Automatic annotation (TrEMBL):
GO terms for molecular function: acyltransferase activity, transferring groups other than amino-acyl groups. It comes from Dankookia rubra. Residues 7-148 form the N-acetyltransferase domain. Keywords: Acyltransferase, Transferase. Transmembrane segments: none annotated. The keyword Transferase applies. It comes from the Bacteria. PROSITE patterns: GNAT. This is GNAT family N-acetyltransferase. Pfam families: Acetyltransf_1.
Amino acid sequence: MTSRHGLEIRAATAAEAPGLAVLLAAAGRPIEPRELAARLEAIRGGAGTALVALEWGPPSGLVVLHWYRRLEEARPVAQVTTLLVGAEDRRRGIGRLLVKAAAQAARNAGCGMLELAAGEDPSLAAFCLATGFAAAGQRYLRPLRKAG
């Protein structure tokens, strides 16, 4: 999917791992490029996708989503597990374009809903509301293995 001003949004591949590792590290989520490449390939082979926003240099943004079935929903739900735009690329519409591309990928996968957990980040919550999401409660997590 090509968009305005030379920005391209497409499926992320292992080849983007080094640039995405820099983007993730700047956001406080460091992952080694080799491990990131393996994770991107695993996502491609599973029930989900990773989309990258590219211009002329390193990746500008990333959205990762996974779809799954819920008893309450007739169609699968796509959950955005990562939405990230580089600090220098924010406020240019890249996040909106990533959400739009994610929604299209979810529709193509037969999903009926897109969800995103914004947590306590007020700017992300405002972004979600501005891009058509509605607030829908809290989320709780429980690790399956003891930290050690």
